[in-house]
Amino acid sequence: MDTSREQRQLRFSIGVTFLVGVACVAVGLLMHSQAIAFDGFYSLVDVVLTAGSLMVSHLVTSEGSRRFQFGYWHLEPLVLVFNAAVLTAICSYGGFTALHGLLTGGHELAFGFGAAWAAIMGVASLGMALYMRRESKALGSVLLQLDAKGWFIGGCISIAVLVGFALASIIQGGPLSHWTRYIDSTILLVLTIALLPLPLGSLWQAFREVLQVAPDALDQRVRDVMGAMVQERGYLDFSSYVAKIGRMRFIDIHILVETTRPLGDMGDVDAVRDEIARRLGSDIRAEWLTIVFTAKREWM
What pTM was computed for the model? Predict the structure, then answer.
């Protein structure tokens, strides 16, 4: 499996994310803006997470070793669990910081400059999100998909900051001016509450793969194909076991035949395996597909 294009995209994302993160943290600290600083801090943490994804992308193409004889596919959902858990923690901490800011009276900001900065960062982040999402679909990469989700979250933060700061600029100096000091913390609190389900959803999906929960669609497809094969070829029964770990699908099929039934030579047996793989839409070069024939039910 060639992941060189995936790795190039991840390296590109790391470079852009680092520049955006440093700039946002610097501007946020200078303006004393919790929302902008949070956006930058989120981006810098995402650099580390994307670097981890890049390392995993290198490993999954290797042949494995005597210690990891099934390869390194299990590292992909593990890094997704870690990344999603960290992003969940960041959102939770951001919500706590925003709540503390509201309870302590908020603070004043230069909302005009903040709105302009948020607009620039919003366009850049959402542009990167669309680009990485397109690449993830083209390559079928969950790592690029997670990276695109990270850029989308960053873009949403910037757009929300833009809307809030623009509103604050409008009401500043009017009868509602005393509420502007709460705008920054309110934006951050709303953002963290709205964005928290995104990493939580990724965390749940990755946990399913770590725990090797059978994907319903794949399990049903294998059962449908093998049910038809049993009827067509007169086999006694079958059993199947499926799992999806990262981008690798593991399919284990046991076919029960009569003790005296001739299966033919090895070419005939492999022809049956090829037919099953074709019906499943499987590529044995990119999947772990095992098909076993037995006359003993206990081997199933």
Answer: 0.66
